[in-house]
């Protein structure tokens, strides 16, 4: 799990969710506010997704957040 701030000062957490058939989703939740966003990650497996999330800088996290869709 990673915590970061968006460009407006909102505090977010990004976490991984292992989905069916080996797919991995990146889940965003805003700290202190409702709503969850998600986006699929194009990785070979969960371990690769963990490495991608660990190495991502805040700019990458903000970019992914901008492309994420509301959950459900």
Describe the model.
This protein has 72 residues and is an alpha+beta fold. The chain has one domain. Helix content is 28%, strand content 38%. The protein is built from 2 helices and 5 strands; from the N terminus they run ββββααβ. The chain has a 5-stranded antiparallel beta sheet. The chain is globular, with a radius of gyration of 12 Å. It starts with a strand and ends with a strand. The mean pLDDT is 94.
Count of domain modules: 1
First and last CA, distance: 21 Å
Largest sheet: 5 strands, antiparallel
Radius of gyration over all CA atoms, rounded = 12 Å
Succession of helices and strands:
EEEEHHE
Strand content: 35-45%
Parts with pLDDT < 50 across at least 5 consecutive residues: none
Q: What is the mean pLDDT? A: 94
Topology, please?
Elements: E1 2-5, E2 11-18, E3 24-30, E4 36-41, H1 46-55, H2 58-67, E5 69-70
Antiparallel strand pairs: 1-2, 2-3, 3-4, 4-5
